[in-house]
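RECORD TYPE: inverse folding
INPUT: structure tokens
STRUCTURE:
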């Protein structure tokens, strides 16, 4: 992987991991309800889960979705249904009355959540199909996965930290209730573009043209 391509990939990781989506909406809510320290395992679970997904996509799992595109549709709707349930749980959280009794996501729960998160699938497939050069061999895949984890973790931590910063303003139950309902609605809204999108790009379609475009942009 050339330095120019690696730089472009880092920007891709930052843009996809740092922008609003199901993971970050849940981190914001968790930071506000439980604090940053209790959200650390949630952060690490997202980072580890996404890294493992990139690794799995690069090592051939993406080919299964190319061969059986109906699986992507099934996964998309199952993931959407699960996140609607999570949105309901956030909106009706008992943490409104006693935050100490609430339970943030564990490492394994956050990592497993990535497999029903449509945005996570799009991110993992995009990382492999666009930034793995043709004939680069399997050794490039761990590099892509590791970079995604290193870049994604600080982005996740920032969202949880922002939620932590909101805690002083959420002491009143009514205010916290409004915040949780708002987070739930934003989580639902983040599903709309992913549910409306089509199937992800095929792993065989390695992005030769995007590589050229990236090189041109960086040298201009």
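DESIGNED SEQUENCE:
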């Amino acid at each position: 992987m050339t330095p120019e391509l690696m730089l472009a990939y880092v920007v891709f990781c930052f843009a996809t991991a740092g922008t609003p989506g199901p993971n970050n909406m849940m981190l914001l809510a968790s930071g506000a309800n439980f604090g940053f320290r209790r959200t650390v395992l949630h952060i690490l679970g997202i980072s580890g889960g996404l890294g493992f997904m990139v690794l799995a996509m690069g090592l051939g799992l993406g080919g299964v979705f190319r061969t059986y595109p109906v699986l992507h549709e099934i996964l998309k709707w199952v993931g959407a249904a699960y996140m609607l349930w999570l949105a309901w749980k956030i909106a009706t959280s008992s943490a409104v009355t006693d935050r100490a009794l609430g339970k943030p996501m564990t490492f394994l729960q956050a990592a497993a959540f990535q497999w029903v998160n449509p945005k996570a699938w799009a991110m993992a497939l995009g990382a492999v199909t666009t930034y793995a050069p043709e004939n680069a061999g399997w050794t490039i895949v761990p590099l892509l996965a590791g970079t995604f984890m290193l870049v994604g973790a600080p982005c996740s931590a920032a969202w949880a930290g922002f939620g932590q910063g909101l805690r002083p303003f959420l002491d009143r139950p009514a205010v916290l209730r409004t915040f949780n309902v708002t987070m739930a609605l934003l989580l639902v809204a983040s599903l709309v573009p992913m549910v409306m999108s089509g199937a992800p790009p095929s792993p065989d379609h390695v992005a030769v043209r995007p590589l050229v475009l990236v090189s041109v942009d960086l040298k201009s």
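NOTES: The chain has a mean pLDDT of 77.
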